[in-house]
């Protein structure tokens, strides 16, 4: 049951897709001050609070303070209060159990036992917001009810599950040819290469620098021959440059955000001074979305939208203020106060919330200050792209994801978790963030594997990829100036080759489970506590996840560890992978286990009476043979094992779960025999272990 | 056996105290390029590398790159390559097992399998260095041989083991009275309060701001009545101010470091422009060290030396360069390049290694560029203080510790681990760093409990103090502008009161074990792998430590965890503490355990046939009753338990381990009965559990 409460005159966010009548009575559970948004709830000692999608810290958010304020945060230290997305969904699990969605386009603060360990306090200056309370029996049913409220998650093409390579700094077509060549030479799978900001002419959207890409069409086609896609970046800011088409059209049609004097607002990003398209305006969304055609006409099939919080290096006013301050102190004895103030002046010009009050949107005849709708900007940019691409080819799935987001955007694209660092702690953060994102509808997600900022190490890359092979978006991305981290850069690249080939074997399972999660409003990555809700130990295990219906993973995320503890809420089949990715099987009992793993070893775990389907190895989804599967499972009682397996052509928008194939494995005399309704599907290897009953 | 190899003309560091002849043959184990320091060693897959004292990451340093370059690092992210100290000691544990000390006053780089996972490479531009190779059978014997080489560690007074309160921002005497009062009111133990930079007049060393401290002597005496000490900070930089005594004396006697034109070098720190005393010069050390008398004359008994890397906010040249750059771009379209460069220009002026080439020392008639001796500066400042205090009162132990250090300084004072943050990750870093510091001789150590930078939380403070009660330096310290974190600031301060009272009960044990570690060159905090060297699991357990001879601890360091795994290399007695600090006992078997702990619960573990001595509870060491002890132990075979217990008056320098008291507990019929050679020592409670044999 979902209850809706409306206050003031909320700005329409299109976050929800169900039409629900507002309740007249007061909000349950909370003390509520209606002057602004101000909700207070008493936290019992053992109450867990889940949700908040893209945010720092653990799966259980208890004990810290979070602001939903889409922010270009360059360094993800553990004290971070905001990241790129605003995902105002909480799930309270104590004596009370309910979901809570604050649909509000402005900043909202979630004090989850930070100021007072026993109080949850949700506040905002906003007087305009809608609150949804989701009441269901279990954590899983609350999630599915909430996800039903906000609508079906974005489904990418199957190739988006391939291994993707990115780095800020690829500058010319020869870089891309070289990357393909090096992967080929070392037999490392490769699905796509990302084009970061340097492919553009002076960082102008929908341009290609001809001097560095003299025949872009040929590059696209040459890579297509190897099954490899190029995925260009699109930034929110449009360069101010006479005769640049996008700029000129935007100016002519008043498509840009304006300043207080109704002139196009000037901010600075990569190209220096830019204007921001007014994505809050439906006409602007339509205009900008269709510009993607410039690239799809070359054969491009995927995009990532960036800098759409929007990131601001500086505004004209902000820059002037900083220089004025520096001028005021430059001839004094610069001591403690001035030193800190000088740094703050320069560092504070970027992404300064003051600037959000300096520009405005035109929405249905009204002028709305940016601050009021800040959290929707990236969402609306990606909606613009999605709707544009739909027009360009209505029957085709494009890869599309964004840095900034708000709940609702999950219907239009995925997200990556932004500028993390090559820190072991960020591998763990990646693990913990995935289920929280799933709760908020974001299924196509991943972190920059190996870490974006700072220098990665071989061992970190190994451990991160051992987890990354399970994330729908599996992309290696790194920042300009950091150590090169394409997999061929490491002397032991052979291990990566084997590991990625296994990723391709996993794709049939991952893809099938992804589509089910999207269509059935379930979690692709689930915390143990959501599945094993009666297990009091499961609740504190945040470093193991369920992946789809059959798998549990327990990633290794500590440098120089030679093993880890794994908790099994029930008996499971462990598949252990050695350095050669050779599998060995062992049924492990319910309970605690310490498992030793050297650096190039890891394991996964299959739940009882579930099936893991593995496809055929490939270096690219285009090469994949979908006619046969390997089946692995663990029967706790010699009963048949079943799995609903979904597959399709991987690219058209026509997705029907009813076409799923029921796979059944039964014990016949000494052997386990698999059958399915699809006569074309062969089962080449069936490994079913059973416990000693 | 220690082998010494000398190259070039090493600058004398006084790090070692033994006079050893240099070996003529070449260095064992390593490939050695003698153009500069350049050592290469092949790392096997399972080789562990320990050491490096104050540095980021784990106890095993394998896989990362470290520079020994004393640095004022404001944010301890996991990619940090340098911290405040230069501790060039490594311990290699593989097929080869040996210790390695690079005695070199210049920057040294330790690439421990970072560039190539299978190579240890130690490099420096220096041509002048001494290498010591320590060859012994075990990790423990290598440590003790190395510590014998570098001389006995600093021993603080006993009161330095009390609970200490600090914060940057205490400004006047009323702040200090208030802190005392609030601890008293809530019955929270308190031993000392730190005076951070604001007690001084304009941040001038050896001054007190009379307007905010109108009668400093009275403040000291008033606090002394409650047994509470004041511990002022002393900074390295001396303010340039006419008629300020220290400045005038320094100028008159040419006691300051000079620039290329032989004028006193100008850098800026808290007071703005300062000169740096030339601590490399023995005469300057003598002069500065005796200045501490200004404060000891008021009754001050402890000091912390800060900013002695030396920290530099900016140099005149650096500031000019930054402003020149800003002037060059201010009227252009500031794009990607300029934005980053602008930030770098301002942020890079602080602690810029370029400045280390801009000033010089006068050492025995020679002019030496600072870069050459950079890593010794903080060491020599603290040596200056120690030698000065010895002159002021030769028979008294003063509390003294430093931010910057080099091996050798461990004889003169302790260190705190600098400006950490209120991150759970920094609690874990604190745990892992302690044994590494001990290896390098630094025994009196601790981190800023609760975290210095960023805002702490109640749960973090609880968990951090549950570990902090075991660190010799137990200080709560935080930065200006962060959330107040004195223990009385939290609504649940009652728990802290109980926890700290237990710290005071631990002091007899901690003090006794500390003195033994200092006198016998052993580890106060030991990794499990050093004690249980045959246990292949112990090597990968970095989140449990041995504390002294009898205890093992397994701190909780994850937010919202409700328990943790603990590995017992042998059967042990667990003492579990509940919210009320009530103890329950349980003998746990060797092996893996999952133990549940709610937030205000934790445990410690006693090794078989060892004794934990607990003293009487107190709110201050001055109140402690040393006439009786409680004994807790676990007898694995009903044999007597023994412990060598050291105690003394806690303040005079006269320390003789031979006065230790042998305590023996034997089973007599049904009871365990304790005896000791000291008739004045009573045993009020004896709890000995034994396993079922």
Give a summary of the structure in a few sentences.
Chain A has 693 residues and is an alpha+beta fold. Helix content of chain A is 23%, strand content 27%.
Give the helix/strand layout.
The structure is a homodimer of 693-residue chains.
Chain A: E1 2-7, E2 31-32, E3 37-42, E4 48-51, E5 64-68, E6 85-86, E7 89-93, E8 97-103, E9 108-112, E10 119-124, E11 129-134, H1 139-150, E12 163-165, H2 173-185, E13 192-195, H3 216-225, E14 229-235, E15 238-239, H4 245-252, E16 267-269, E17 272-275, H5 282-290, H6 293-296, E18 302-306, E19 314-315, H7 316-329, H8 336-347, E20 360-363, E21 366-369, H9 370-373, H10 377-392, E22 399-402, E23 405-406, E24 414-416, H11 424-439, E25 445-446, E26 448-449, H12 458-468, E27 474-476, H13 493-520, E28 525-527, H14 528-531, E29 545-547, E30 551-553, E31 563-568, E32 572-577, E33 583-588, E34 591-596, E35 602-606, E36 611-614, E37 628-635, E38 641-645, E39 661-668, E40 671-676, E41 682-690
Helix pairs in contact in A: 5-10, 7-8
Query: Widest sheet of chain A: strand order?
Result: 25-24-22-18-14-13-12-27-26
Average pLDDT figure of chain A: 96
Discrete helix count of chain A: 14
Number of strands of chain A: 41
For this structure, what is the CATH class of the domain at 513-690 in chain A? Mainly Beta
Structural class by sheet pairing and helices of chain A: alpha+beta
Main β-sheet of chain A: number of strands, strand sense, barrel status?
A: 9 strands, parallel
State the helical fraction of chain A. Answer: 10-25%
N-C termini distance of chain A? 42 Å
Q: Tell me which protein chains meet in the greatest interface and how many residues each side has.
A: A-B, 69 and 69 residues
